[in-house]
């Protein structure tokens, strides 16, 4: 019976969802302890790795996994994969691009509106019995007329742009690949050929790109200085796109009005995380792509890829192969 090893640790409802999408004839195992040694030990007899979480899939894991046939990501990020080592072992890798794009895009829009409307602060005040209707109301802002700058225009970026249209926001973007004229016209997009060139026009800056060596900490003290006073920063992509200390300084000084982060430089966040001290920062635990619907579909699609691979139906999943 082929063994599917889930490389993180699920309990409760997430574990029940995963187990329920695995068909008869396969055995699925999640880690008993979320650490590297447990991963290596369980990999010894694994036929498939279902990769989520942040534990590295490196030479040590691959050497132990002598029965390994294929690696399947639950999402699309590859920062936990040692690509060179995987290529040397000749193990194919599959992803599910776009499977949680709707959920991430909705979470992005939620965070944008929560910042503009100062929902966390006002909710807390109201719970405490504070009723300053006019005084509080005039501290909020509308999305209409704001320029939203999107870094990355893949599946998620395009959905965010589409969702912004009814609000009357102006959408600008930068990406290594420019969209076609038809897409730009349909979504009302204005293209900038560099991140830095786009920053001065941004009222709201939102990240929707993968993490690479070239763009690590692309938002830092230098680039933050290019953003207009009072801007908002949203990150539902990867935490290491932003230097957290420089972001903290820009928020504390008032240069930025607020930020909302679903992804963080270190995950899970640790005690002493300075951004958690600020009232004008909204933090969520990397849940943008984990609505019930998205999570269920993500697990189902990932397992279906594994089943297709085991049954030799490679043509059906060729478009999902990363390498």
Strand content: 15-25%
**Number of helices, counting only DSSP H or I runs of 4 residues or more:** 14
- Whole-number mean pLDDT: 97
What global shape is seen?
globular
**SSE arrangement, N to C:** EHEHEHEHEHHHEHEHEHEHEHEEHH
Overall SS class: alpha/beta
Distance between the termini: 26 Å
How much helical structure, as a percent, in the residues? Answer: 25-40%
Q: Any idea what the radius of gyration is?
A: 21 Å
Physical arrangement of strands within the biggest beta sheet: 8-7-6-9-10-11-12
**Number of strand elements:** 12
Essential attributes:
single chain; 323 residues; alpha/beta; 7-stranded parallel beta sheet; 14 helices; 37% helix; globular
């Amino acid at each position: 019976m082929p063994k599917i090893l889930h490389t993180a640790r699920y309990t409760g409802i997430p574990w029940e969802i995963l187990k329920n999408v695995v068909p008869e004839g396969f055995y699925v195992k999640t880690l008993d302890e979320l650490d590297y040694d447990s991963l290596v030990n369980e990999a010894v007899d694994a036929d498939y790795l279902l990769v989520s979480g942040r534990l590295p899939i490196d030479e040590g894991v691959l050497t132990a996994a002598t029965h390994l046939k294929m690696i399947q990501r639950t999402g699309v990020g590859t920062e936990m994969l040692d690509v060179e080592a995987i290529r040397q072992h000749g193990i194919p890798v599959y992803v599910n691009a776009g499977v949680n794009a709707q959920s991430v895009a909705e979470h992005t829009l939620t965070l944008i509106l929560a910042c503009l409307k100062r929902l966390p602060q006002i909710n807390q005040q109201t719970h405490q019995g504070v009723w300053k209707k006019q005084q509080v109301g005039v501290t909020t802002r509308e999305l209409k007329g704001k320029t939203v700058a999107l870094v990355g225009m893949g599946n998620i970026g395009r959905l965010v742009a589409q969702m912004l249209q009814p609000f009357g926001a102006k959408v600008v973007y930068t990406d290594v690949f420019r969209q076609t004229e038809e897409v730009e016209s349909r979504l009302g997009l204005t293209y900038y050929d560099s991140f830095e060139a786009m920053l001065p026009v941004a009222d709201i800056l939102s990240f929707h790109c993968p993490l690479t060596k070239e763009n690590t900490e692309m938002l830092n003290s230098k680039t933050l200085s290019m953003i207009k006073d009072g801007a908002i920063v949203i990150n539902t992509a990867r935490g290491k796109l932003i230097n957290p200390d420089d972001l903290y300084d820009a928020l504390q000084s008032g240069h930025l009005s607020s930020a909302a982060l679903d992804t963080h430089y270190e995950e899970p966040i640790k005690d002493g995380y300075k951004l958690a001290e600020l009232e004008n920062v909204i933090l969520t635990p990397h849940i943008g792509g984990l609505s019930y619907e998205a999570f269920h579909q993500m697990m189902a699609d990932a397992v279906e890829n594994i089943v297709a691979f085991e049954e030799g139906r490679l043509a059906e999943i060729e478009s999902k192969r990363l390498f």
